[in-house]
Structure of Fanconi anemia group I protein:
Amino acid sequence: MHPAAEPPKNSTAAQHPPPQPPPLTDIEIISLAHHHHQHNPTSPQVPPFLLSESSHPTLLSFLHSRASSSLNSSSAVFDYVSSLLSLISRHPSSGLSSLVSALLHSYLCLFISHKIPHDHNSLATLQQFVGYIDMIEIREIQKVIGLITSYLPQINDLDDAHVLILIPKCLELVRISNEVDKPVEYVNSVVDALIKCEWSKVLLIKMVEIVRDFSSCIDKLRRREFLEKIFVKMRNDVEMQDLPGLVYQLLVLATKGFGKREVIEGIVLYFGCMNKGGSVMKQVEGTVLLHVNFAVKQDPSLGQEVLGLVRLDSRAFNHFTVAVLLSVARIRRFGETAIGVLKSALFNAYKDYKFAKVCRWLSAELSEEYLENARVIEKAILKAVNASHCGREHIVPSIVQLGFGLLEGVEEGIQKEISKSDSLMGTEELGMQVLKCLFEVHDMSRNEIIEQCKFRVLSLKPEQCFPITRLLGYLVLVHPRSMLDHVSHLKEMLDYFAFMDDKISPHLVTILLPLIKFKCDLQDYTILVLRKAMFRRENAVRLAAISAMFNLILAEKQSKTDGLFSFQESSSQASCSQHAEVSQPTRPDLFQELGGLLQKCLYQQANVRQNLYHGLMKLVLVDPLTASTVFDFLLPHFKRFYREDADVQLGIDQCVKLENGRCYIVEPLDCLLFCISWILLLQPQNRSGYPSDSWACFGFSITQENEAGRTFSGESFSNSLAQIRKFLRNGNLEGLLGKDQDSGSRPMEKEKRRYSATLILGIVEVAINIIVAELEKAANTQKLELERELSQFVDIHEFVEKYTSNSRQGTGAKRATIRASVSDTADKLALGGTKLPPERTPLLATSSIHRLLQLALEFGNLDPKNGAASQINSQNSSGKTLVLNSKVLPCILRMCFRQLKFFSFMGKDDPIKTLIYGEIKLLGPAVLNIILSLKPVAKPGTDLSKKEAKGRKNIEVIREQIHLALLCLKKLIEISLYDAKYVSLIDDLVSASGSEDVSTGVMDAGCNGDCQLAEGIDDQSTRSKELLIKTIIKPLLIEFLEFSFFSEAEILCDLVLMIGNKLPEERRNLVGSWVTRICKSSHVSNSKVAKSLVFAAVTLSSPPADLDVAQNMAAELRRVVGSEDTDPLDTSETFPVINKSTDAAIASTILQSVESTVVDMDLITRRLKTYYMATQKGVSFNQMRKVAPELAMEEMLYSRAEAVVKVLSYFVAMNLKDPQAEHLLRLAAKFYKNLARISKYRIAPKGCKQALPSLKYHRLVEITCRQLTAPVYNFVAHMQKNQQESNKPRRIVNKIKRENKCIPDLIFQIEDYEKYLIQLSKTTKVNLLRHAKRSTSRDFKILEPSEDTLEEQNPTEEADCDNLNAIENKSSEESGDEGEETDSSQLPKSGSPMAAEDTEDEDEAVLPQVKRAKMNRVVQDSSDEE
């Protein structure tokens, strides 16, 4: 090729165009590019043809011709474009930018029109163009962007999306360009076009890949829209196999800072809502969890986002959220935190539901919402655990940690707050289900679960250990074979038996009993451990060991009863010879084997012996055939304390010892006789059918000769009990108790006497049980004699009782330390029993008390229809001797009350509870009939002062009996209301009352609205409760108020409140209305009864009526108490129950009711805090588009707070006494603290959206400022004025000290509230302080003294006054608010009257500087915050 000739340089030559460079073909261009690449890669020379603009059409035509070629057009185009771009890159000049622009535009047109194939060559070509986009002019780049965006809807294949790789570079160049007018707006419009266009599945995946390359061009709002579009398309178009890669790209995008929270939200919601795919989807979720785990390791801030989502909104909970948290918990830095967030979310859901259920002024719909939320969380946890075997084995350790964390959370009391009727599992059940599922699914987790159980049983507190032991019990019972593989761990736990808590150790032995029949040596190992424990010095260890021994013995007896041979049998099938060997017992009976060890228990402490006796009773209950063997075991021991031929047959003196200045019981003889008496009643009457092997014990052979001996043991005990009964009736009880010389006896002798009386009292109760049992079987001729004997023993019981600590007739000496009661034993506590108070456990059977009550009704001339007059005035016309006199009835009622009191403390599944207490609901009708028989029937105006002085005395006696009977009735109703087994007790009471007869004559009093009670109700339980109020409690209450039986009326008010709280909301309101009418119609002078009536009226009124009632009563109370402008009245006309005698008690009651509302407000405010934070940050998981429950809660909160303001507004206008005024100050401070919290939470943090306050909130602020804040300042000023004018400075010093705490706190809370109102007003541009009054009150107010007063003070007092005033001046200066300072002229000079008054007593007048410092700090904090 020859070089072109140079053009002539003269002007004539310039008029002719230069000669065109020789054209190049496309093949020559490709060859030239290859040549330069191989031989001269750094040469900048470019063929002139390419530099000429006239060659551009030719060059572009080559591109089109190659694209139209039928043979391998893709490769041809790629070779040509890459060669051409290679040559252009050697001479980067502005002249070639048009060629690059035209080439890119032509290539895009060919690509978009599908004139060239979309394959790897096209991708490589587009990638080369990315490097040359910088050479293109901005306006041409905009055209490229337009072409690409118009092509987006046509992308349906992955190769079609190759063109998108140009987008990031193009947008970045436009964004930083100065040639484009408003480049940011243009970029935003392009992003909007990308978001709004229709995305195919391929485009979705490609968008996720490229968006991180131009993420700097997208603002926060568009990022959120972009991610929303991605997750919407994921739900509809993405196939499951594409999900892991797509999620990985999203996580990579999040690690680059692109919408971290939105990415996590979207992933969690997407997989949490997916209900299709089955096992394939579970495998996909497992892969995604691994991706999330890896991403959190690379960027820990993603882990914080996961935790933050659950903290802000519990509605984020689904099974995938749980799985993500469990996966994140495998990272060391998030381990404890992630599990803690899971637990907290569950516990908070339980607490929210429990509060919504208990808080009466929240709607039922809100309670259902929280119930559903708790259910969702429970189901999410279980679903995540159930799917743990599908590719997510890495979360198994986290599941173990969560399960045990839930079991340990039972200690927080959540379990007791959850009822099974709510269809919630509760913390313990959920934790057990998690670990059960894990134990069944993952073999590798079993060893860890057992090891963790062992560690926690040995290290946790007893309350936390019981759920762990119950889990072990389930695993032993359901998976015995699997547990045998870990028996070494179980033996290690048994090794620590003596070091465990005495409540846990016997329970642990009990749950391991089912394994004994599978593991032959486990029983021997357990017995060995128990033998060692019996020789420990600690008394609690021996008690636990004796309980565990009887658990072993009872389990063996129960297994024989169920048809098993023994615990030693193997579970595998034996051969015929083996069957023959098994049928022959290879070892003695377990009771026989442990007999020697049990005999040693008879020489240990009293509580060990007591546990032994009750264990023997349980043994006979399980196997009555062992009764004779037990008698043989006890007879020699019994003979030590019973001397048949002696004058004093019972060795009470041997049962009580004085040693080292301490008195204690050695032998619980009453428990021994109690055990013997019940075994005599339980033993079979027909002995011929006894199997011979059941008597082989303690060396007795199975022969005919010793059968008589065994029979003699039972008969000997029977005869001995008969002799003891005779001895107690005829013997000298004073001698049995010991000599009592009041003047000379030592204190220890008196203590011993009380202990002896305690034992005798128990023996008397055993005798009463025996007599009642004989009375049930006696013929008519013998019944009268037995009834006389029963009456004698009741008298003896009353006589002995006055020597014990429980006696009302005692001298007031300190209560003796009585033996531990039955229910204190470890096995009962393990079953969920409650610890008993240190009082004697009654040994009377319920049947005995029931019989005594019946006899009292039958022979005491008590007629439920005629009332007390039949007892006062009647004569015993039948000629029969009165068996039970009126003095005995209080004793019987005290027995009944004690029985009912201890009933709730007995173990739930304790067989002795059934034996002793039986059907305790039988006592209800008898007690009620006694009340109805004793009630007064005389008219209130009857004069009993002269002729009927004796009748007046009888009325007082009857009143005492009614009081005791009402206490018993109250206990019975408590049992019925809180134990489902005894719910029919109320039905029995209603049936026994004879409703028509009871209500005659008194039902019409105030019946306008109460007649609706018990009408139109389908639910039988509710109807029975209302009938009980309507037909029994209401007439009695009206009658007792007429007769001024105030203590009895107070008990009835408690019953009304207790029953009313168990009624449905609409029915409870009827009861509240009736009590309110009682308050309007009855003049009550007793403050306790008035307090009970007012409290019941407010509490039983359904919200918002409850605070309406409180507001009406507060208005009447202001008239009775008086205010600064009005004089007080003696009695309210609207509510006669409010009068001068009851005003203080009623004021305290109303304030107490309002305080409960303020406490509820505090809990709701804390719950709203989380909601406000989530709303302000834009977090929302409201997938169903429902109204958030917090919105309804917020509206209710404002309405309730407004009602509180109205009630308190009446109190701040009253002349309250000191205790009520102090209560009001504390309550107002709490209320303003809640208002300040509400205002503070409504202020959005910086960078978050500020919501406008609602109209209800605006109204609340206005009413608070007008009706409460301004009057509160006047109230404080009035209080301080009265304080200064008081003439008794010594008496008010303590009050001043208390008020110096209350008043500064109240002022601080008010100012804190107003501070947040100011901030909220600034952020919302709404004036919320339009009706506010600037505060002028502080913690004190000092008035300027007169000149005459100053001259009368003496110099000594002036020095003290200066000291006090210096402290007060400092406090006053520091309490300034918003530039408002106290005028110095108001400060008193030395010798002021106030100072002189306060310094009258040197020790009391000057307030402690520490308390003043605290007061100063409170006020200073207020100033600092402003």
Q: What stands out?
A: The radius of gyration is 45 Å. The chain has 64 helices and two strands. The chain has a mean pLDDT of 76. Residues 1342-1426 form one domain.
